[in-house]
Amino acid sequence: MGRSERGAPIGRAKPRAFHDLVLRLLHRTEYRPRRYQSFAAAVALDALRSRNVLLRLPQGTGKSLVSQLILYAQAARTKYALSPDKPKILVLTPTKELREQYVAMGQWLEMPDPSRHRLRLFNCAEDEASNRPVAQARLKHADIIVSTPKFFFNRLSWFRGNDLNEIGLCIIDEVDLLSISDEAFDDRQRLHEDWRKLIEYLTARQVRTLGLTASELEPDDQDLFRSLSFKEVSPFERSIVPFLPRVRIDPVRCVDGRAQKLDELITAECKVLVGRLRALRNLDQCTTSASFWREIRRIASEGGEAADLARALLKKQRERLDVYEDKNCSATAKMTAVKRLLPIHPALVLCREAELVKELVRQRRGRGVRSAYAEKGDAYLRDIADFKNGRATVLVMTRDLGKRGVDFPDVRTLILYSAKVSVRTMDQELCRSRGQRRRPKVVPILYYARTLDEEKLRTVISQLLDVRMYDAYAKYYLSRSASAWHRKRQRRWHDWFVAAD
Predict the structure, then answer these.
(1) How far is CA 85 from the centre of its chain?
(2) Which domain holds residue 270?
(3) What number is the average pLDDT over the span 71-85?
(4) Residue 359 located in a structural domain
(5) Which residues neighbour 402 within 8 Å (Cβ) at sequence distance 6 or greater?
(6) Do 100 and 117 fall into the same domain?
């Protein structure tokens, strides 16, 4: 065994002993320590002694707090520290809103308390790290550095090597986002490569990495993380069961003749395009919607007539999404449904288009309404903070900001304006309101009746109902009336794109 700076032995984190430490750490904070959190932290700490770790815990069970228990053990040089000679912690979050949420949650680490070590946290935000001498001084004296990867690497040359060499642990929040390689999102693959370089940079300096995720990894993702020396751990302790996420999905039927006609027109045009494409390429191997669109995107990346037809087909699908998300912002059945659902405050609405966010806010016209979308710059962070702090009763935000990690546990109404085909994305969005097994929450999802929007929702719900945590606990359920709707015969996916023989 090694010895810490204070002379205490550096030992393994036994769950029971570590829970005693957690009780002392959090006794004056707003957090009530849960045994499964200290158990998960102890398991992850032990695994980190030999390799990088990917810690998987369900949404709403406190992954961020678990990671902060681990970083305290390291930065305060307790007897559980991985390396007392390299006490600094680097925390990287994929988005600015996640960074702000992590900093707000970590305020307890800086609170003066005679029973524990007071740590110093450096938030690498634009207003706190825009001046080079100030940033250098803050990093030198900081125990914990919280940043987005882009911001940190853009200022890497500012920081002295000695300060960087004191980093002994890197924590990456929502780490599975960084490995997604989807042909529909070219930037995801480039982002993944940037993170590969980061992990290679950390590995060369013998910095252990802890990744946090709530999502099941796809087989390709598992291979990727294994190649980067990550060990996946998903510790189960019985006391976690009451806190596991539990959400009732509530499909909300919206009848709109204009949306139905536009959907039928787009379907007819798609069938013509697919017919012409089948004359040039064999599409018989595409037996599911996912495989069909993967093949279409692959063909679109090539050249020639087939690529032109594939790109035209993808364009038609984007037009269809614009119909479901009311991009033209005219009065529609979905907008009426939102007005009917919003009076139960606090309320959060997730949309795809910034134009729709602006229109819904304009219709509400209230001092208690806030909006969040990327075009607002850092102003949307203040709007999110206002909503979380109770200064606003309604928040309308784009789904690209709200899909990962940003939690709203006090929300009574969470509305999804339309369904997405990705089960992983829907899983993340549905859990933003933090329903638990002991206090389930209802999430309405709007759909246009008699369109592909309805069938897409039925399909993704079928997959969500099969989700099991720890192979035993269901995450989603339907009401009796919604179950009857869900059992109705679904149109085959290719009926919407392929002309009848």
Answers:
(1) 33
(2) 257-325
(3) 91
(4) yes
(5) 348, 350, 372, 429, 432
(6) yes
